[in-house]
Amino acid sequence: MSNWFDQLKSIVNRHEPAADDNALARAGAVVLLEMAAADDRFEAKELDMVQKAIEGAFGLDGPELEELMAEARSLREQAVSLHDFTRSLRTGLDRDQRDALVGWLWKVALADGHLDRFEEQLLRRLADLLGVPHEEFIRRKHLAAERP
């Protein structure tokens, strides 16, 4: 998963228009937050895992991380669908990065020690929208369960 982080950091840190980089970071954060809320409650352990994923993936901390989280929360609350976010991630990330993102989604879902049926349902849908094959989806599930 660190490979996903390294590649996302390189995308975010490139000297290209900041709007594109910020959009990718926000899209990732929105999807991770949606996973944390899939069972209709934000558990502290799930939110900690979301923050850990965002910190590692985007190299953000302190005020930058707080700002990204606030933007992502607002976007998530206003969103009618996750399709725009997953489309950005699918086109902005390569296959390995998308696979790693699914691994982080599993870690968020499993962070509270319970996999709710709505969490698994959302994860299946997100993996499909991200273009992650079923066998990789299952592999990432097992990896996340082995290494919390």
TrEMBL record:
Alphabetical list of SUPFAM superfamilies matching this protein: TerB-like (SSF158682)
Tell me the InterPro entries matching this sequence.
DjlA_N, TerB-like
Q: What domain of life does the UniProt record list for this protein's source?
A: Bacteria
The family database entries (CDD domains) matched by this protein are listed as: terB_like_2 (cd07313)
**All copies of domain Co-chaperone DjlA N-terminal, residue ranges:** 27-141
Question: What protein name is recorded for this chain?
Answer: TerB family tellurite resistance protein
Q: Which organism is it from?
A: Wenzhouxiangella limi
